[in-house]
């Protein structure tokens, strides 16, 4: 134990050593404490003052290792003589980091093995470095594709089992995606495979020039390129810190996936008869869609009410709304227990808490952490929130039910159950309100996809309250 503590205090040898050590500490934190990779990584980059190429290398190490964890575990299981569950978790994370460098990064094998052996020595002790050396040397003897051929089931025997390893997604997630894409038993899974590949690419940083507050040209001048369908979207090619752009720093612009912009724009574009000044965002935190809706309703001389139960997320909503004209209200409260009279609003957004299976590009660890039970636990709340949204809208008004998950239990399952139970609201075809966006499906609802639209897999159902 003392040896370990002393070893930990030893200063890392070189720059590359230092970056690998930071990546190891982040992966450890994520796996040991159920941490969020993005939060832990950003903090570590700041604390250790890593920037530029070092930050990029560290990010790829952390994100890649976590994203491909299931695949690396299948490969490592072939290279370690005992069950992986019997290894110290620290050692397993070091091996995963080594496997990622050897199989999916252009790191020289000799350097990758040596650096990981040195890191093992300083982080867990000399006695384990021999095992890391031996295992990583075995890993380095094959390419990624050769390992997949060796450890994944053959496509002809078990195509989902093959994708599970070759594309690093749990079986239940692949099955849920296949269902949502309408794949029938016996159909090809080629499109599912495309989707899984898209999930393994980091998402681009997309910005929004909030309507009436910032001009898209401002973002373009700062190096972004125009989005494809949202008139307010711009993509920061090559990433970079959006906070350096003045319009983002002041809240006139923000960071928001184009899919997230599109579903809010569809809600705003669909016609309602009569007054159109009171809009509600029932699940508002952190406030990306709230800021867009508030900017749009301000242009109609109306106001947005935003509801969020978690105080720190309600603060984020306030911050996102800070540049928008008008006295928009943020209520810290539970959307299932309205403090406002029934039928108070002309338009309501219910962007409900969900499994997030549509945003796996952004959260590298999430796919291994989520379970089918999470989905089952969320659907009653999703139904209550949709029910509350319909109660809150006036007859003739519109509700947008939105998830960043394509899982059918969270999307159509919830909508069908609530509409059937209530009997006073009906689906509106949402597709005409995103006229330029291709491949929206058979309607009346809309499902966006990373592999088709290069957005998160956002789902939208537009619902009109009939009476
Ligand atoms: C998918 S996020 C919303 C994202 C947001 N619309 C945006 O674009 O930034 C769902 C939000 O619902 C909140 N939430 C959870 N339970 C809720 C409840 N009972 N009523 C209202 N909001 C709830 C969560 O805290 C979370 O902030």
From TrEMBL:
Positions bound to S-adenosyl-L-methionine: 283-289, 308, 334, 351
SUPFAM superfamilies: NusB-like, S-adenosyl-L-methionine-dependent methyltransferases
Catalytic residue positions: 404 (nucleophile)
EC assignment: 2.1.1.-
InterPro entries associated with the record: MeTrfase_RsmB-F_NOP2_cat, MeTrfase_RsmB-F_NOP2_dom, NusB-like_sf, NusB_RsmB_TIM44, RCMT, RsmB/NOL1/NOP2-like_CS, SAM-dependent_MTases_sf
CDD domains listed in its UniProt record: AdoMet_MTases (cd02440)
Pfam family, any one: Methyltr_RsmB-F
Sequence ranges assigned to domain SAM-dependent MTase RsmB/NOP-type in this UniProt record: 181-466
UniProt similarity note: Belongs to the class I-like SAM-binding methyltransferase superfamily. RsmB/NOP family.
UniProt protein name: RsmB/NOP family class I SAM-dependent RNA methyltransferase
Organism: Kribbella deserti
